[in-house]
């Protein structure tokens, strides 16, 4: 059941102010991609903090998209726009060293490797589920819009999401199957 989106006005204003509407990204601009990810999470029934994290997931860059809108020493600006919980999810997503984290992401005691600090920690179960859900929303958006991306990465992503299936909601898993297996 879709959940109403939270007030994203302050986050969108910050994104626009930092140039997200001018940064090229598959499917248009970075802002368009981020908005689609938020909407996908809302359609999957994600709670407001996760929806806001979806809207802002690229603020600090990611392991796959290194262009950051804000440096880490300005995290408080994003927290002021979206709240501490959503900002912490944005940091978690941005900080992920995918090569080191993905192999054991589905394991309750699997370490999460922070690419910014070089340290590892064990996320709480909810954070691990949120990370997986946000990852699925991000990757399925890219695969849905870019056939070359889907052809190159779809099988590997479907394998990843199959491994972490217990962390995904049913709507997220269904989208992964429909978008990545095609």
Features:
single chain; 182 residues; mainly alpha; two-stranded antiparallel ribbon; two-stranded antiparallel sheet; 4% strand
Spatial strand arrangement across the major sheet: 1-2
Give me the count of strands. 4
Q: Give average pLDDT, whole number.
A: 94
Count of helical stretches: 9
Biggest sheet record: 2 strands, antiparallel
Q: In terms of structural class, how would the helical and strand content be classed?
A: mainly alpha
| Approximate strand percentage | under 5%
SSE run = HEEHHHHHEEHHH
- The helical percent reads 55-70%
Radius of gyration: 15 Å
Q: Gap between N and C termini, in Å?
A: 25 Å
- Overall geometry comes to globular
Poorly predicted spans: none
Description of the structure:
- The mean pLDDT is 94.
- The longest helix is centred in the C-terminal third of the chain and has 21 residues, at 125-145.
- Strand 1 (24-25) and strand 2 form a beta hairpin.
- It is built from 9 helices and 4 strands, in the order H-E-E-H-H-H-H-H-E-E-H-H-H.
- The protein has helices at residues 9-17, 30-43, 48-56, 75-82, 84-95, 98-101, 125-145, 147-163, 170-180; strands spanning 24-25, 28-29, 112-113, 120-121.
- The chain is 58% helix and 4% strand.
- Helix 3 packs across helix 5 (84-95).
- Strands 1-2 form a two-stranded antiparallel sheet. Strands 3-4 form a two-stranded antiparallel sheet.
- By secondary structure, it is mainly alpha-helical.
